[in-house]
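Bench notes, afternoon.
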Amino acid sequence: MKIKKLSLHNFRNYEDETFVFSDGLNVLVGKNAQGKTNCAEAVFYLCTGASLRIRHDRQLIRHGESCASLRAEAEGRFGAVSLEAEIRENGRELRVNGSKVARSVDFLGNMRSVFFSPGELRIVQDGPDERRRFLNLSVSQTSRTYAAALLRYQRILEQRNNLLKERDLGLVFETLPVWDEQLAAYAAVLIRHRKEYLRRLSPLAAEAHAFLTDGVETLALGFDADYPDGEGEIAEKLKRELSAAYERDVRLGFTTVGPHRDDMKISIGGVDARGFASQGQTRTAALAVKLAELEIFRELSGEPPILILDDVMSELDLPRRKKLLARTSGVQCILTCTHAERVLYGKETNKIRIEGGKIVP
């Protein structure tokens, strides 16, 4: 998959700009706070329908404007595709090849990307929320079934949590089994997909990590919860656990059991990376996970995704920069940096200079 052209109108600090990308390495160069990351974010948004940096789409609209629009023209193994997003203060409209998409999950998978920036270190350093967010975004790009189940699960979970705050305890205990039945069914879909994804991701991440560290350290990923493999068995197990947690859930006012509480384990040399990894180890582990994600997308779709590297080179020493670039051979890459290093990137690189939200010669 390759993006050929990206047009932005009133998106972030861009008034009206069009980027033309080459099939190989594209370097967005410029000083800090000029709009390089905003361009990278736009590409990721058109792949996933979500931003890695904000929770509310209206924050993507240029200051003083009422709406923003993004459009990408891409080319994949099945031909050309155009993706559009019009973002308004009260909602948005997504289109594929000019046709409005009724469900956001149908927007997924038309163009895939892997995004890595220093902020992605949160996958290793921070709490379970960040690792669940990574899994949700990544697995959703490979499975619309997962994406649809995730939306339904989140809605039912919200309704169950609202019920737990009711003061009529008789109503609460009478109604909870109804919600549990639905919640467990969608939870089972999420858990099965996550387990399968992690089975693929773990050896690929270990191999990428060994490549980056010359085999000095070992990386391992795993699921922190113990579930059976079949969806039916998973659902039954969850219903039992939800039932056993009724009194605790009512006391706390929220659901304490389910995939919204699960975590992905990351260990380096057999030790939990979250508590003991140095900054350098954290950076390398996070990068290895992203390189593994790239390989999974390549395996499942038959073509590599777009690799977005946002301000990554400044965080790596020279040997790891060279290793990273060697690893991205044959992949379309959008890389942002403050200085375009000719010795490192080569003369054939497509360099795009950005100043104040504008492309300049």
